[in-house]
Design brief:
The complex is a heterodimer. By secondary structure, chain A is an alpha+beta fold. Among the domains of chain A are: 122-226, Butyryl-CoA Dehydrogenase, subunit A, domain 2, CATH 2.40.110; 230-374, Butyryl-CoA Dehydrogenase, subunit A, domain 3 (Up-down Bundle), CATH 1.20.140. Chain A is built from 11 helices and 9 strands. In chain A, strands 1, 2, 3, 4, 5, 6 and 7 form a 7-stranded mixed beta sheet that branches. A two-stranded antiparallel sheet of chain A has the order 8-9. Chain A is globular. By secondary structure, chain B is α+β, with helices and mostly antiparallel strands. Chain B is 45% helix and 14% strand. In chain B, the strands form 2 sheets. Chain B has a 4-stranded mixed beta sheet with strand order 1-4-5-8. A 4-stranded antiparallel beta sheet of chain B has the order 2-3-7-6, with no helix packed on it. In chain B, strand 2 (145-149) and strand 3 (152-160) form a beta hairpin. In chain B, helix 5 crosses helix 7 and helix 9 packs antiparallel against helix 10 (315-337).
């Protein structure tokens, strides 16, 4: 048992923090907010050169076989600068699903390209009627003589507009009718009848809704043998929640530091705001919640490979707790900046919005406390 | 980075379990479960301390040359966790965890030789003389005065909230030996034999129905100057050092988890009409469990970064705040879970020596007293407001 970072992990943290501090400033973020792509292909290329895209991919496919702790280190640094590159969509969700479900040929065709930055992915799973229930999928994949025909719609596809290929979940209907199984399908971005409606995402980056009216796909579009997709989806989303939790910690840390500085400089009644006990105690509470969030993100990362119930409870617990902390730290950062906090002239609002997006994504605190409670029956005693 | 135990750590875990199985009697276990105050009565707590001492585990946080077991952070963690799981008595922390580290850090060789073995063996039972009626959060305004008279100090004044003063044979106290420009100056740290003439103790009953704390009066109490720890006038420094140990060098999450487990079991039982089937109770249990998970990780992070015997510093305030708030959340949840049974009051103490059938099942007896006594968690050892001041000053630099 040891919770100290290894030397390699420390190096990774230093290089990620340095990269973000040097490449991601307010000007860059403003530029990206108005950019049709929402991120910089040049930065993505640098991610590839730094080995960050290869990080969690297995060595046999050109990767570095890193784990969730390393991903968390990167994501926390990304949060510090509000990085908007499609890292979660392509690496944390996309590459993980290919690795977990894909055939050897599918992996060989994609994972090395993901690692070198030439292939970007998105995961299209959420549907309007499903809310946050990962098992609820109304999109249908019918077997045809040539392969598959997909019909349905997906919402909140992170970075779908930039993906070369989307991984779309659908209920498999074979020649006998519904199979009761969910399958994952590889859908190239330029597939006819795939309609992508993209929008700027709250807190930076972009997302899209997609319509699959009558999308025909070849036989090989099904990821793997079409079995075990739902457990893989739950696994990948739990991993993504751990990674996003670490990103939220980075965002909160920056907000805490920014707000702390502001309360030292801003004077009212002839003294700095930070001289007032009510402000000092609020900042102490914020610092405490950032620390709790950091602990929970790390805990979720350390348990991503635990057995499913333990993993899921750690992920849901982290999502719920970090979401709660994020709202508090974000809202109080605005409050302590006063009127300036609600303007677009400061960046506090941008950081706050990314936290709101985090809390919403894959379900908020109430949803995850409930999931955590429901999983209790399946778990060992508390 | 790894949360799991390696082979050596698992072997040690087995050793701890074996020790507990051999030494924890049913009587001790039941008495501990039925103690709604913070500390076990001395007959229970000291029996356990003696067993620990026989094993060489009497003071897990001490350096090895003073009788510490030289455990790794992981071993300390395993020991505390296994003790919490098994429900062992709460030993007198005023000796092992408070005055012990101060004597080790600042005491004379004579003091070390005399006091430390007696703390380890459980021969001495300590109480803490810090707060005074006029000096609570503003502790350094304390007025109990020690006036030099030859080789003695003559002490006059009063201390309050003195846990187990009615059991203790020794007290460590902060007393004023001079008036400096700052009120923190002129305070000295002194060790007092409770049998010295002039000391009287008044019991204070708390809202949970327990007698745990007292007021202690000093009326021309003669204490040898040799009983002063460190330099005269430097007591505030030693006292703060001790407070950091008091606040957050321990491992509290394991015990909180056991407390929540007991509440969850009640919620799952027919005794409470299965309170857990109410979605808000189920979600609240999860919320508290997640808070304990976060605390546990923070404790592990702090523990991993610290060497044995090292003082945790300002992070102890952060831990103390969270531990006290979560303890209160657990006890509040407990009182809600037992529903109408929360109305029954059992005035007799100790609860493990009742000579009549209680109004509610034994598993519920401590729930409301623990909730009521638990209001003190965010007050003693420095209120939550004081902890937030310390975090703002020491961790945030404002």
């Amino acid at each position: 048992m040891d919770l100290n970072l290894s030397d390699e992990q420390k190096l990774l943290r230093e290089s990620a923090e340095r990269f973000v501090a040097e490449s991601y400033d307010a000007d860059h973020r403003r530029k990206m907010a108005n950019d049709p792509l929402g991120f910089s292909p040049a930065v993505w290329k640098q991610f590839a050169e730094l080995g960050w895209l290869a990080l969690p991919i297995a060595e046999e496919f050109g990767g570095l076989s890193g784990g969730a702790v390393e991903i968390g280190i990167l994501m926390e640094a990304f949060g510090r600068g509000l990085v908007s590159e499609p890292y979660v969509a392509t690496i944390v969700l996309g590459a993980a699903l290919i690795d977990k479900c894909g055939s050897t040929a599918q992996k060989q065709a994609r994972l090395p390209k993901i690692a070198d930055g030439t292939l970007k992915l998105a995961f299209a799973h959420s549907e309007r009627a499903a809310r946050f229930d990962l098992a609820k999928v109304a999109t249908i994949a019918n077997r045809t003589a040539q392969g598959w025909r997909l019909a349905g719609g997906k919402i909140a596809v992170l970075d779908g507009h930039a993906a070369d290929e989307m991984i779309v979940s659908a209920h498999i209907h074979d020649h006998q009718g519904p199979s009761g199984r969910i399958g994952l399908f590889l859908v190239p971005a330029h597939t006819p009848s795939l309609v992508i409606s993209e929008y700027p995402r709250l807190g930076g980056g972009r997302a899209c809704n997609i319509e699959l009216a009558d999308v025909h796909l070849p036989e090989g579009a099904l990821l793997g043998d079409g079995h075990g997709a739902l457990p893989a989806i739950e696994w990948a989303v739990d991993r993504a929640m751990a990674a996003l939790g670490a990103e939220a910690v980075g965002i909160m840390q920056t907000l805490l530091e920014t707000t702390l500085e502001y309360t030292k400089i801003r004077k009212q009644f002839g003294r700095p705001l930070s001289a007032n006990q009510v402000i000092r105690h609020r900042l102490a509470d914020m610092a405490m919640q950032v620390d709790e969030a950091r602990s929970m993100a790390l805990r979720a990362a350390l348990k991503v490979d635990a057995e499913p119930v333990e993993r899921a409870r750690a992920a849901s617990g982290a999502k719920a707790k970090i979401g709660k902390c994020a709202r508090f730290v974000g809202e109080q950062s605005i409050q302590l900046h006063g009127g300036m906090g609600v303007t677009e002239e400061l960046e506090v609002g941008a950081y706050f919005k990314r936290l709101v997006a985090f809390d919403t994504l894959f379900g908020g605190s109430a949803h995850h406390y409930r999931r955590h409670a429901e999983l209790r029956r399946a778990a060992a005693p508390v | 980075m790894d949360l799991s135990f390696n082979a050596e750590e698992r072997t040690f875990q087995g050793e701890v379990r074996g020790f507990i199985a051999k030494n924890l009697t049913d009587k001790m276990k039941r008495a501990t479960a039925l103690t709604p105050s913070v500390f076990s009565d001395p007959d229970i707590g000291m029996a356990w301390q003696r067993a620990l001492h026989r094993q060489g585990w009497g003071a897990p946080g001490w350096p090895v040359d003073h009788g510490g077991p030289d455990w790794t952070p992981a071993q300390r963690w395993i020991f505390e966790t296994e003790c919490a799981r098994a429900g062992v008595p709460n030993v007198n922390v005023m000796g092992v965890k408070m005055v012990g580290p101060v004597i080790i850090g600042f005491g004379s060789p004579e003091q070390k030789n005399f006091y430390l073995p007696r703390i380890l063996s459980g021969e001495d039972y300590w109480c803490q003389g810090y707060s005074e009626p006029g000096s609570g959060s503003d502790l350094s305004s304390l007025k109990t005065r020690a006036v030099r008279d030859g080789d003695d100090y003559i002490i006059n004044g009063t201390k309050i909230w003195t846990t187990h003063a009615h059991h203790a044979n020794r007290m460590f106290a902060l007393v004023r030996t001079s008036d400096g420009p700052r009120q923190q100056d002129g305070i000295s740290f002194i060790l007092i034999d409770m049998k010295t003439p002039g000391i009287t103790t008044r019991p204070i009953l708390t809202i949970g129905g327990d007698h745990e704390v007292n007021q202690v009066f000093f009326d021309d109490v003669r204490v040898p100057v040799a009983n002063r720890v460190g330099e005269e006038g430097k007591g505030w420094t030693y006292g703060k050092y001790l407070l950091e140990f008091e606040r957050g060098s321990g491992i509290a999450s394991a015990k909180l988890r056991e407390g929540l487990k007991a509440i969850s079991e009640l919620a799952e039982s027919d005794l409470t009409g299965r309170a857990i089937d109410s979605p808000d109770i189920a979600a609240r249990i999860s919320e508290v469990e997640v808070d304990i998970d976060a605390l546990e990780m923070t404790e592990l992070r702090v523990l991993s970064a610290l060497q044995t015997g090292q003082n945790p510093g300002a992070v102890s305030s952060l831990l103390k705040l969270r531990v006290s708030e979560i303890r209160q959340a657990v006890t509040r949840l407990g009182a809600d879970v037992i529903g109408h049974d929360a109305l029954a009051v059992e005035p007799m103490r100790p609860l493990y020596k009742l000579n009549h059938e209680p109004a509610v099942p034994e598993d519920m007896l401590t729930v409301v007293p623990e909730y009521l006594n638990g209001r003190a968690y965010t007050i003693f050892g420095g209120t939550s407001e004081i902890q937030r001041d310390i975090i703002a000053k020491m961790m945030l630099g404002i």
